Amino acid sequence: MSSKPLLSFDEIAEESPFFLAPEERPDWPALFDNDHPLMLEIGFGNGKFLIEMAAREPGCNFIGLDFYHRGIRKIVSRIEKLQMANVRIVYGDAREKVPFIFNPGELAGVYINFPDPWPKKRHIKRRLIKPAFLKVLAEKLKGGGLLRLATDSEPYAREMLDYLEADLAFRNNCGPCAFREERDDLPMTKYENNFIKAGERIYYLDFTRE
Questions:
Q1: pLDDT tens string 20-49
Q2: Are 173 and 138 in contact (CB under 8 A)?
């Protein structure tokens, strides 16, 4: 039996209760019908990490933010099939959407797994993790909120670590200037699994909002 075809992006935007393209700041407790802690994943890819996190932590609400149309279509279809009431998907660029859709101190956690490292020198300015964006995340995270990142790119990992160490709003949970060696308390992403099987090192960053 053939699988049900994916809805188009326009159909999802018009029909799915799990998808948001907000024109004003959402009332998250009203949308989720509870005031559970709010967790954000930026750049969810195929959605494996986000769905597994939402399944294992039903007492938290999860928001996935991405601008990849096909990835959004796939994850919304899975969420609808599973009827996961604690997940919502938002379309857009994190630099634009995060300042707009969250109140100060509203987030309990942020996950950013394998952001594009833009390895070419002329593209480095396109990297997401820069001091200005970290200030946005610091504003939106509540005190004690977590910021957890992962990358296979050593230059990008060290750049992110330098920026975070210099930002007094964050504390390194691994100790000064240190990476976490492994991350067995969170689901493994598709890329993470492939990198580890290939014997490549993953750089994990684990910080708390002061």
A1: 988 899 999 999 999 999 999 999 999 999
A2: no
**94 shares its domain with 8:** yes
The three-point CA angle 104-109-114 to 5° equals 120
97 and 55 belong to one structural domain: yes
Which active-site residues does the annotation give? Answer: 116
Residues 82, 50: Cα–Cα separation, whole Å: 13
Q: Give which of 147, 155, 148, 149 is closest to 117, Cα–Cα.
A: 155
Q: Are 121 and 189 in contact (CB under 8 A)?
A: no
Q: 131 and 206: one domain?
A: yes
Q: Which of 204, 190, 198 is nearest to 153 (CA)?
A: 204
pLDDT band at 2 (very low <50, low <70, confident <90, very high): very low
In a domain, 32, yes or no: no
Model pLDDT for residues 93-134, shown as the tens digit of each residue: 999 999 999 999 999 999 999 999 999 999 999 999 999 999
Q: Is residue 182 part of a domain?
A: yes
First to last CA, the chain: 53
- Residue 35 to residues 31, 45, 95, 121: CA-CA distances in angstroms? 10, 27, 25, 44
Same structural domain for residues 96 and 164?
no
In this structure, are 16 and 90 located in the same domain? yes
Q: Check whether residue 210 and residue 122 sit in a common domain.
A: yes
